[in-house]
Amino acid sequence: MPQAPFTVFALSDATAELAHNLTLAAVNQFPENDCHIIRVPKITDLSQIDETLERALEKSGILVFTFVSEEMREFVRKRSQEVGVQAVDALGPTLDALASYMHTPPSKQPGLQYKMTRHYFKRTEAVEFTVKHDDGLGLESVAECDLLLLGISRTSKTPLSIYLAYHGYRCANIPIVKQVPLPKIIKEMDPKKIVGLTIDARKLATIRGTRLRKLGRPSSESYGSPEHIKDEIDYAIGIFREIGAPVIDVTGKAIEETASEIIQILELA
Question: Tell me, what's the pLDDT at 111?
Fold first, then answer.
């Protein structure tokens, strides 16, 4: 198998946000692998595509692209085959299907989905809030969140927060650490804003063991011990019960699936 880290180039003639987010959603299904996503936005000529293909070839990477221009889409498909780089057209098939269904060609103007709408500003504000309240940061204003995620290390708190933020929800997440008291402000918050995350101990032991190896640390550390992890999980469940927060098991679930469950439980939709 190829050696990690893996590299994916997200290309677009607009912001490359869609290509990046689609790639990120897919990459999250492979939590035991490191993957570096390189965004390449605002591509306006074919030479930029060639340059990116060369970079991908050097890094044994792949391309995910979202061009509205049929010329660029076809160029990437042809040149990627010639140089031996795998390329995924993430937008083209959908555009083609809709064009056939609606009997009209799509607009060739890139970036129309990013016009300055009310939703755009709401999402931008949510992302900014979420980044400032990641992993226990920003406690002084954490009560302003739409939802708060609690969980022990490696229970997908950060990727879930970012995913939900992209859908307009201001998220905060705080790690549960045994023998470290939960911030007082959390116990004063409305429990209807809070969700506790848990996971199967054996699955988490595998994830943490992989993490320790990548950091060059011994797998014998208590951080990766199934017994220690079971103790952490039991402690966290006790905290969730104490504050009256619903609990979601993230074992084997995609980020999107867990996020949908959170929205449903908290009645945010």
Answer: 52
